[in-house]
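Record type: monomer structure entry
Structure origin: computed from sequence
Chain ID: A
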Amino acid sequence: MRALVYGAATALALAAAPAAAQQSQFEKYQKMVAEGSPVELFELSGEELWKKKQGPRQASLEKCDLGKGPGVLKGAYAALPRYFKDVDRVMDLETRLLHCMTTLQGRTREEATKRLFGDANQPSEMEYLSAYVAGQSRGTKLAPGAAHPKEKEAYELGKTMFFYRTGAWDFSCASCHGEAGKRIRMSELPVLSEPKAARPLMATWPAYRVSNSTFVTMQWRINDCYRQMRTPEPNFGSETTVALITYLTVTAKGEAYRGPGTKR
């Protein structure tokens, strides 16, 4: 609550302040919300879900292979998205978690994806699990797959999608994130096609959002961008969303992961 009140006051101050003062005020706000972030609580709940036996097969996710071997979490998130031979496609964290839910636990896609992007008061399993798994990569440099032919294809598709204009408003990702100096309210809009801007952003997702008091993931972020562009929202874990996440993460490669983060 203190952070929200300070945020409102900061917004008023930013409107009248010169650029240097605006940045200083915004940095103070970011520091305050980070200090009070409940990210650790989401990670703890995610660990419980990771170890919980569920589905028709009454199995946990502890044998889920996220790319480092069954059950290995250390550094796994930092190496995603990547190509998985067993499904012959590139997957990000959430797509792979869904795969493990259906194959290891025997759950249906519909049951495993209930409440995605829904009620902030009742997050889905995906938010909790993403927080837990991502947290195991703190300090590990982002190194998504970029050598396999399908990883290269995903990168090129993501790059094309980033600049592709579509929808009722003829927007692309670059409409907001393709020119320096843009901002929506208190949120700076970094030029995400440039490594310098992509690195700090991708190194702190998934993240807790103070404005609506919930934890959100990269699949959510891509989906919500499409919604705001007045474009039909993509299916969860689709080739399009994974390709965009691949493009952004490859652009940010080399940055040490320090999430899950805290956003406005």
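Annotation 1: The radius of gyration is 18 Å.
Annotation 2: The longest helix spans residues 19-35.
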